[in-house]
Every structure is written in C-alpha cells, then in structure tokens.
Amino acid sequence: VENVITHRLSSRGIDPIDLFGQQDIRLRAIESEFDAKIVVRGEEIIVTGEDDVVQQITKVLRELMRSVKHGQTQEISDIIRASRSVKEAGEDAKQPFAGEFLDIMSKRERIRARGPNQQRYLEAVRDTDIVFSIGPAGTGKTYLAVAMALSALRRRDVDRIVLARPAVEAGESLGFLPGDPQEKVDPYLKPLYDALNDMTPNGKGN
After folding, report:
1. What angle do CA 4, 137, 45 make, to 5 degrees?
2. Of these four, 9, 47, 76, 142, which has the most CB atoms within 10 Å of its CB?
3. 3-class SS at 138?
C-alpha cells in the first residue's frame, strides 16, 4: 500500500487507564473509525496507516490526551464523534470550497465560512432563533456567532447585541475564583470582546 507511515506519540505522565480506558476501549473506538493500526508500548503510542489517516488519528489522540490532562473524562460517544468530525474535515479539505462571505471585515480580511461545517453553522444562526454548537476549541463557533450578530445589527435586523456567557461552568464555583464579581466574569466574556474588537473600527467594540 502506498503512503503507509508509522507515527509515534508519547503519553508520558498520563495514567494509561485514564487515557485508554479498561482494555484500551478508547483506543479501540478510535481504531474502529479509521483504517489504521494503533499499538501501545509503555508510554509510546504507535500509529500505522496511510499518511492522511495517521495525521487524523494523531489529532484525535492529542485532543484526548489534552482532555485527560485537564481532568476531563471522554466518553466513547465523545471519541467517536470527534473521530468522525476529524475525518469529515479531512474529506472537506480535499474538495474545493467556496464559503459564504459576510458583510463584516476583520482586521485582516472579509469574514467567511471556511468549510461546510462553518457554512451550515452560519445558515443555522440565520434561520433559527437558538443554535447549540458543539465542537473543539478554535473552530470558529464564538467568532462566527459574533460576526453574524454584527451583520444583523448592520442590516438593522436587530437593535442591539446582548453578550451572555455562563459565568460558572460544570464543576466550577464562581465563589472560589479570584477577584471581585466583575473580574470573575471577565475571562468568560473575553473571547466575545476579542471577536468584537477584531471586527470593529480601531478595535472599539464597546
């Protein structure tokens, strides 16, 4: 088979049961979604398969390790969903994609959907009153939501934008965070403010 490679990752410092589950059930879940082989030898994870598949598995494994290091438990359903999302993104990358452009500029360029998932997200925000979006950090969920809000404000579809974000996430207590109430809430709103400042003249998103 052409383009078969072997890639090694280190799981040093992570409890193997926390990472892989009993009888490596989490690894088997990942392996079942891809045409590749995953072997664990001590603190080394060895992935063998076609180049693009190995890259996709590596991405899933790194995200799994990051979650475990932060004390987050990944259910099998979460791992399967993440694997399929990575596979879908890989297939999308092979196809030319012309995403919808919004009437909002960032400091660098006009904002647009950069893949089919983002395009579906924009359409959902436009067509429905409430949208629940689940996905890895850094995939544009917050940024595009702010862009859509500014676009609606510019078109006068809405009179104002109200920023809201949970101040307490699962397993956290606001009372134990440092600072006064405003200082405790600010970190949760910062991604929204950062996006606004990137899309408004001179960064004045107030």
Report:
1. 35
2. 47
3. coil
